[in-house]
Amino acid sequence: MARTSNYSGPKFANGNYKSYQREYDGQRLQIKKRAALNRENRRRGTYGNGDGRDVSHKRDGSTTLEIASKNRARVGKQRKA
Fold first, then answer.
1. Beta-carbon neighbour count of residue 66 at 10 Å?
2. Which of 1, 30, 63, 81 ranks highest by number of CB atoms within 10 Å?
């Protein structure tokens, strides 16, 4: 069975998704969030050392250190449901 794409709608038409993502990532709030996580990664000594760990946000607003793939996989699970 062929897998169909979940990417449809005007946002994804004509391959324009990258420009939408660039615009979203450039928003002030997103830059602040990314900078805060990078700062926390540096503080914990895990930034750029190749250990595969990442600082992620928890539901209560605190941060935790976890394997990067688990952090990113959890977001996908929420969207698929």
1. 15
2. 63
Mean pLDDT computed over 21-38: 89
User: Which of left, alpha, beta for 9 (phi over 0: left; psi -120 to 50: alpha)?
Assistant: left
User: Which of 65, 62, 63, 36 lies closest to 52 in space, CA to CA?
Assistant: 65
**Percentage of the chain lying above the pLDDT 70 cut:** 72
Angle ∠(8,57,18) on CA atoms, nearest 5: 30
Strands in 1-81 per DSSP E: 53-57, 63-67
**pTM higher than 0.90, yes or no?**
no
| Separation in Å, CA 27 to CA 16, 18, 60 | 18, 15, 23
Strand partners, 56: 64
- Measured in whole angstroms, the distance separating CA 80 from the mean position of its chain's CA atoms is 15
